[in-house]
Amino acid sequence: MKIQCLNKNLKDAVVIAERNTSKNQTLPILNSILLEANKEGIKIRATNLETAVEVSVSGKIQETGILAVPAKTISAFLANIGDEQIILQTQKNNLFIKTSEIETTIRGYSSEDFPIFPKPESQEEFALTSPELKQGLSSVAIASSLSDIKPELASIFFSVFKNTIKIAATDSFRLAEKNIVLKKLRAEKMLSFLVPQRAVGEILRLLENDEDIEIGVNKNQIIFSGPNYKFISRLTDGKFPDYEQIIPKKFNATAVVKKSDILSHIKLAGVFVGKLNELSLAFNPAKKAILLNTSHSDVGEHSSIVPASAQGENIAAKFNWKYLLDGISQINNEYVEFNINSDQSPLLIKGKGDASYLYLVMPMRGV
User: Fold this and answer.
1) Fold of domain 124-244
2) Average pLDDT over residues 166-175
3) What is the C-alpha separation between 18 and 46, in angstroms, rounded?
4) Mean pLDDT throughout 18-30?
5) How far, in Å, CA of 265 to CA of 125, rounded?
6) H helices of the chain, where?
7) Which whole number is the average pLDDT over 8-19?
8) Which of 341, 277, 280 lies closest to 313, judged by CA?
9) Residues whose CB falls within 8 Å of the CB of residue 227, separated by 6 or more in sequence, listed in order
10) Above pLDDT 90, what percent of the chain?
């Protein structure tokens, strides 16, 4: 193999690939990336056996070939050279790198030791734009669990039917759901699956610009294909909670408030919250306001009044202020609508007049 390309392009691709390597000490080949130059172009691949990524790099191919090299070594090397153009050439199981000022050899591995790169055959396929996917994933990923004890809660749920993609996540303390309607989508049978949160985090890093993303799904894997990359992940084996039954249909109290107002007041109250992050919200129709109250024995006390269009009963409940902040921040609307039934029931948050996104947060009991 002998190729010539821009250092920046190669470095960016290697950084992406390195994130999908394994830190396995007994199988060092999983700590490496695979460089390949063939008639299809220059490809960089990596896998940790749970996810796999292939990134295309533009450049000039003088000789085809393939070699695995330690990801950490080549990534650190590329990050510390200033040359614009770079030449890479295989010499047996070594990678020879040359620029206008540098000549370096990195010891590699035979490509035969590298795991077979998965080539999933998709049973179902659909496509959407990068902004649609990015907004959908980021708006619900905040509610997924950080613990792997229950894999289904550490995953993002997808449900595809007719022209709608429903994305949801929950950690049992809160729930987020986003509906994306696509004109070109026509799924006649319902398709549902779970994508691990870690894989979703990597997809969010890959998404950029206004590109089209093709998604292919089979029983065990999902593949996201962009203009210059393919990302493959195993699906989570499990059943997502039947969450729709816990979403209230009617409410005893409703309040509409300006998003910027409620966010600034919650952030201010966050300075004074206790060790459990508890913040009291009181919906007061008589005062046409939402009242915020919190205190910390070592810091002080805080209360504020946020003007709101409030209707219904006078209800007060305590919530984790960070959970409130997460959900409200994802709403793409000037006004936020709060809906609640009692101090023991969940709080439903959504944009005023927008049914495409909802965020449900459970109250803190016994605090």
Assistant:
1) DNA Polymerase III; Chain A, domain 2 (3.10.150)
2) 97
3) 7
4) 87
5) 44
6) 7-18, 71-79, 130-141, 197-206, 259-269, 321-329
7) 96
8) 341
9) 211, 212
10) 86
Compute how many other C-beta atoms are within 10 angstroms of the C-beta atom of residue 232. 22
CATH number for 2-113 (one of 3.30.9.30, 3.40.50.300, 3.10.25.10, 3.10.150.10): it is 3.10.150.10
Locate 243 and state its tokens.
């969450």
The pTM for the full model equals 0.92
Reported as type and span, the H/E element at residue 192 is strand 187-196
292 contacts 279 by C-beta, under 8 angstroms? yes
Closest alpha carbon to 195 in 238, 236, 150: 236
Fold of the domain spanning 247-361:
DNA Polymerase III; Chain A, domain 2 (3.10.150)
Give first-to-last CA distance, the chain, whole Å. Answer: 65
Taking 70 as the threshold, does the pLDDT of residue 367 lie above it? no
Confidence of residue 72 (pLDDT cuts 50, 70, 90): very high
**Average pLDDT of span 335-364:** 97
Average model confidence (pLDDT) for the chain? 94
78 has pLDDT over 80:
yes
φ, ψ dihedrals at 324, nearest 5°: -60, -45
State residue 156 phi and psi, 5-degree precision: -105, 130
**8-17, 139-148, 207-216, 289-298: segment of lowest average pLDDT:** 207-216
> Residue written as tokens 């533009």?
58
- Token representation of residue 35: 């460089």
Q: Which of 313, 323, 226 is nearest to 266 (CA)?
A: 323
User: What are the beta bridge partners of residue 128?
Assistant: 213
